Amino acid sequence: xxxxxxxxxxxxxxxxxxxxxxxxxxxxxxxxxxxxxxxxxxxxxxxxxxxxxxxxxxxxxxxxxxxxxxxxxxxxxxxxxxxxxxxxxxxxxxxxxxxxxxxxxxxxxxxxxxxxxxxxxxxxxxxxxxxxxxxxxxx
Length: 139
Hints:
This protein has helices at residues 3-22, 29-37, 43-65, 69-90, 98-122, 133-138. By secondary structure, it is mostly helical.
């Protein structure tokens, strides 16, 4: 399988699974975050927290798998297009495009974390796992 396609597919699946787990049906994650932070802080603090949480997941995924930033964002974007299309077909049409903006914010968080991991590797701070390294050692 082509390495770029494999990275994009893994990233897309990862983005869908994490998004589903963090936003379980019926009680989205930001509900308990707003309760935890307090009603006076409001949604901007909760959104900042969520984007940071997604950045953490993106960085850890990039470190463990070695997926490059551009493949991560491309796979995540394709996964979100599929998710939004599914939501529009099953639960839509929606009156507000807020779900589109949330998806873009979370994809930004994933990409930011992956880019931080890639930048840290380029500066010699971290060492990411290289995709296909186990294949090269077998030959």
